[in-house]
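F.,

This is the one I mentioned.
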């Protein structure tokens, strides 16, 4: 009844690979929308089942990100099934 350890490891590595692919896809999408300064100051904190959380370096970057938030969300929704929301936080 219990899974073999190699199956557990294989499933875990598969999930990590899928998460890495999602991160790469999202980074490529936002790099097409955001300006260079905002792009450098923005990073993905987490990718959940229904939302992506971004971290930004300052309030000015947060403002610039929010100007494009609807466009970013629409682009991500079109590319990755299941993502319904994005959140942005200022990181220290």
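My design for it:
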């Amino acid at each position: 009844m219990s899974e073999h350890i190699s199956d557990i490891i294989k499933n875990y590595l598969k999930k990590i690979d899928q998460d890495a692919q999602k991160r790469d896809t999202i980074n490529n999408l936002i790099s097409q929308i955001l300006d260079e300064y905002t792009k450098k100051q923005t990073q993905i904190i987490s990718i959940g089942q229904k939302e992506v959380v971004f971290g930004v370096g300052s309030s000015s970057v947060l403002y610039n990100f929010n100007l494009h938030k609807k466009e970013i969300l629409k682009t991500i929704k079109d590319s990755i099934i299941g993502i319904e929301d994005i959140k942005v936080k200022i990181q220290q």
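The chain is about 60% helix and 20% strand.

Talk soon.
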